[in-house]
Amino acid sequence: MQQFANPAKFLKLANAILPYLWAATIILFAIGLYGALVITPPDYQQGEAVRIMYVHVPAAWLGLFVYCLMGFFSAVAFVYRHPLADAAAKTAAPLGAVFCFLALVTGSFWGKPMWGTWWAWGDARLTSMFILLLFYLGYMAIWTSIDEPTRAATIARIVALVGVVNVFVVKFSVNWWNTLHQPASVIRMGGSAIDKSMLWALLVMAVAYTLLFTALHLVSLRSEIAARKLRQQRIAEIGRR
Amino acid sequence: MTLAKRQGGGLGAALGFILAVMVLIPLAVGPDQNLLGKLAPGLMWLALLLSVLLTADRIFQQDFEDGSLDVMAMGPLPFEFVTLAKACAHWLTVSLPLAVITPPLGMLMSIDAARLPMLMFSMIAGSFSLSFLAAIGGAVTAGLRRGGLLVSLLILPLYVPVLIFGVAATAGDMGPSGSVPALGVLMALGLMSLVISPWASAAILKAYLR
User: Fold this and answer.
1) A175 pLDDT more than 60
2) What angle do the packed helices B96-105 and B33-54 form, to 10 degrees?
3) Is A143 contained in some domain?
4) DSSP string of B108-141?
5) For chain B, which residues lie within 8 Å of any Cβ of chain A, measuring from their own Cβ?
6) Domain tally for chain B?
7) Do A121 and A164 contact (CB within 8 A), yes or no?
8) Hey, which of A112, A151, A158, B119 would disulfide with B103, CB 3.0 to 4.6 Å?
9) Would you say residue A1 lies in a domain?
């Protein structure tokens, strides 16, 4: 792991992997989407609307996963002070926020026919997902509002770590709040075990989403490294003048 | 640390803010006494949260600008203790007085008088973590020109548990055990922020001072 912390080596590896990664992503998406939209049976309760699940659930998973990943990179950066880990955390944030947003939007598309409303505050997962999105936005706001990159990196690291610790507290309290205010009648889709005929498509979609995230993350990391190089060159040029 | 009081403005402005909110709320939702009484605890908690948040950027900014933070950072005391003291000072001069003063204002909102002591207790218990979390936000914005919005975006999500349990303690509708568990959780949240906040704000401020 350590040796890939060198940006040059990392770039080499990333460039080598990326084409295969894209190919695998596209293939898996094709299989997953075909499975989700065509092969799998409609749900006996939810009808065709269940197909939203195949795009919604993986997005929500990734929203959480990317947040943990961001915390992990921040912890690594905090311990080893390595700029690449900072860059990784920084570039993961917007992607995670997009997945989070996607999960919320598709969730409310699903909620309209199922619950009858676009948005139900009674559902704890909706609320905590929304708060997670706010955490993402706050983290990104740090990077944009502090100009000096190393300073922004240090501060963003700490904010991410504090956020990771707190997100569990927030999640717990929202769950508790939700049991306090009993929701009227919410159909739980995870209530009964998902049938095998649907599960495989869901899992394929989850892997496809994860690969998509990895590919996008590598691309944005690459451009982040390029941007830093550019910045340094520009500064050096100004210095030479 | 008592200097915080002398810099002034923090408590007064926050109190003025709460009063202004108190006036605006009935204008917004209508003068219906029953409705107001029902909404009052939650709205007063919101007013408290926002007013503490408004004072967050005062915690470190002035000391940062006049250089006394540099001196403190170089002093013999670990920097974490300095931020701890700062956050305590903020609690004593802003959050605690606000938590004591705000509940009686609830009379304006025709809140149930029997609930007032519990509102005050829960606000006092919660104000501790409010101040400490605000210190993190204050540290982030110490070196920034316009940090107000950033503080809100960063810190408001962290305030969610305090708000939930604070309102729960006030409402006391948790079955036979009443408000005590929620008060306990509020204090636990306070202790947790006591652990996290001095460390986090010290690390952030060091990034500015370097």
Assistant:
1) yes
2) 160
3) yes
4) GGT--GGGHHHHHHHHHHHHHHHHHHHHHHHHHH
5) 136, 140, 143-144, 147, 150, 153-154, 156-158, 160-161, 164-165, 168, 173-174, 185, 189, 192, 196, 200, 203-204, 206-208, 210
6) 1
7) no
8) B119
9) no
Look up residue A33 and give its two tokens: 């989407």
Residue among B157, B203, B204 whose CB faces A170 most closely: B157
Q: Quick count: other Cβ atoms within 10 Å of Cβ B108?
A: 15
| Interface contact A131-B168, CB threshold 8 A | no
Q: ipTM score of the complex?
A: 0.72
Q: Are A139 and A156 in contact (CB under 8 A)?
A: yes
% of chain B with per-residue pLDDT over 70: 88
Contact A162 B150 (CB under 8 A): no
Closest-approach residue (CA) in chain B for A171: B161
Q: Which residues contact A132 (CB under 8 A, 6 or more apart)?
A: A63, A64, A67, A100, A167
Domain of B155, in residue numbers: 3-209
pLDDT per residue over A31-88, tens digit each? 877 777 776 666 656 666 667 777 888 888 888 888 888 888 888 888 887 778 888 8
Number of domains in chain A: 1
